[in-house]
Each structure stands twice: as structure tokens, then as C-alpha cells.
Write the C-alpha cells for this entry.
Amino acid sequence: LPAAFREESVTAAVKGKGVRVQAVRTTREPAAESPAPRVRAIREELEAARERRAELADDLAAVEDELSYVRALASLPEKAPGAFTERLAEEGIIARLQKALKEQGPAVRSRRRDTQARIDKLDDRIERLKKRLEQLRDRREPQRTAVVTLRMADPVQTRLRLQYRVDKAHWEPVYVARLDTEAPKLTLERRARVRQATGEDWEDVALALSTATPLTGEAPTDLETWWIDLRETTSESAKADRAGGFAASTEGAIQAKAPRARASIDTGRYAATYRLGGPVSLAADNQPASYDIAVHQLSPELLARVVPQRSERAWLTVVASLDVGEVLPGGSLRRFRDGRYLGEGRLESWPPGTERALGFGTDPAMEVTYTAVADEAGEEGWISKETRLTRRYRLELTNRHDFPLPVSLRYRLPVRRNEEITVEPWAKTPEPGERDVNGQRGVLGWRFELAADETRTVPLGFEVRFPKEAELQGL
């Protein structure tokens, strides 16, 4: 059995008449003295890399010595003046020596750089081998074996099925979204990134991946009666008792909480299982391998999303609906637009039949200009004066595409916490099509279409009034 198996999870079953499983147990046997072939091969490769690095280190030291010698000879006339040096100069020996050194110096420095680069490359290789060896190291742990006792009256031919659970096996969803803006068409590729370090290589196995969450508790624990009472005491001690009683009640409430071939998809009520097509082989080195699950072709709606209070840019956004039989679990998402890689983000859990908006970078053909028109403060009223703050802006959008494009505009108004504050949008601001967008108070939304080469100006702004003697926070 692999090193990462759960002993209590081992079960056995047989098929056939007149035979049954009487007992299942596991045993420990001393580990073999010789390492596994994979570990031995990595150790040999690591040893060879270290020997080669030592040779290169010697070469580098020799180059450094040679370079030091060259420098010493070049500085000889300055550091050792005298009759001997003068005689060498008169005979032209120093001139010839300096010429030779000038020619050899760059070559020596080039050899030093090349040798150092080879050493750095070997260091990276040694580190990778050490990590692989750590993942596959011979832990000298006892060998675990399953022993199954069968009960039968006569010899029979049967099939034995042994099941056990292992740790250190993991998979995560990976998505790739490819947008073709000409069609337009959105291709969503669903993949699974799998890795395992169970201590047992998987060779030609049938691999199934489930979205079910491992059991972390059977059910929430029952609630107990929460008692409160009154006690006659001094005011100071009452405060302390009230504070202590609240802390104890809170603690009780906390303690009461519960501890490349496509895949076939089995959809259940609460989880989906992806069965990869064909046999799969995966080494126990914890290195990720990617497997295809499914590909979906979607018909997206393209629109430009504009949030001028965040940025004077338009963002190309795709709105699409995915009709599949199960909830797509959240996972990493890589985006491509017209064949170009945009970056990696995350796709949150996607229920079937619902729309999802995905961003695909900025839209340079949609020009956005957001200009302040007024930022004023004043007072009003004869008896009860109040302060008025006015902020007005002009948003100008120009569609430089040769086709019409829908625009989704978001704008935020401040929201009061005190009833003495009055907030009103600028009178010229158009009526929004949506208020409190996505449940966010004060966020307004508009949806309209811009024709090719059309420019539209949208007045935006607000007015805030509050008592003169008060101080406003948040603006």
C-alpha cells in the first residue's frame, strides 16, 4: 500500500458464490535497504551534477587567477618602477606585453562570464533535483501491506476488490476563455489540474474527479438553552457582569459551531463526477498534470463597461449564459482575446442557466473623457443656515469602432448615514435604468448603445446639503 493511505479506510469485497471476506488487516514490514529505482536515478543524476559543478568551480578559479595575473602584469610599470622595468621598456618588451594583455583581457573576461553562467545553470538544476528527491525520498518507513482473509467451503475463482483512501492527492478546476471578437464567439475550455504525492505512481488508472467536498462534520451540533438573569449588584459590578455575561454567551455560541481526452460527466443532485477518457498515468512527484474535461461554445454579448470614477477607460466585457447540467466550481481563469493572452484571474462558482460577465481588458476604440465642471461650496438659508456642496462632471464617450456597441455605465452617489444630510443627483443627470446595482446603495446604472463614430455626452454629479455647524466626513 502507498505511504499516504488511511489505515481505517481499507475495505475489501469479492465477487463469486460461496466466498466472502472474513477479515481485512494491515501489516508493517521493514523497509528495503536499497532505495527505489526512481530515487536512485535522481541521486545519481544529482551526484553527477555536483561533480560537474565542482569542475566548473575549479575552472572559474583558474580563470580568476589568470585574470589577476593579467592585471598584475598590466600594472607592472606603475607598481614596480626601476632600472629593470626601464630596461624592459627600452627593449619594447613592456609594450609588446601590454599589447598582448589588451588582446587577451576580453577573452579571459568572456570565459569567466561563460563559466559563471554555466555554474548558475547547474545550481538551478541541482535545486530542482533536490526538490524532486525530497518528494520521492526514501523515508525508510515500514512497508504497509493489506492482508485479506477469505472464507469459502471449496476452492473458487473470484475477483477481489481492495479500496482505501490516500492523502496528498489534489485536483483543482482550471478554465481557459478564448474570445473571438469578430464572430463574436466565446470558447470556454474546462480542465483539471491534478497532482499527487501519495508514494505510489499511478500507471494506466481510471481517474475520476469529484466536486464533492470531503466530510468535515455530520451535522451542526444542537443549540442549547441560552439563559439570562438579573442580579442585584452595584452599578460598576453590574457593568462588569454584563460584559462578562456577554463574553461567556459569545464563547458558547462559538463553541456550538460545527467542526486530453474529454471526460464524461456524471451529474448528481449535490456534486458532479468527471471521468477522464482513457487510462491515466501520473507520477507521485506532486507535479501538476492537466486533463481536458469539456469545451463549451458560447454566443456572448459584447459591451463596453465604463466606470469613470475609477478610470477614464472602457473595458471590454462579455456577458454569456452557460447551460450545463451542473454548477461549475470556482477555479483559475486564463483569458485570451483574438489569440492574445491577457492574464489570469479567477472564475467564481457558476450555477447553470445564469449569466456571467467576464472582462477581457481595455477597449482602446472606445474613448472616455471625464471632466470636472463644478466643485463648489456655499451657504443657504436666512434663519437656519446649511452648507451646500456641488460637484458636477461631464462624461464624453466616443465609439471609434465601425460597428455599434452597447455601453454599461456605472456611477456612484454618496449615501448619507445621518438624516440631517441631503444627497440629490444633479438635475441634468439622466434617469438611471438601475439603482443600487448589485445591492450596493448609491450605485446607479445605465445601458445604452453607441453607433459607430457616435459621441455622447452624459452630465453626472450630485449636491450635498448639511447643517452649517456640522463637519462632513467622506467627501
User: Anything to note?
Assistant: The first helix runs from residue 37 to 74. The chain has a mean pLDDT of 81.
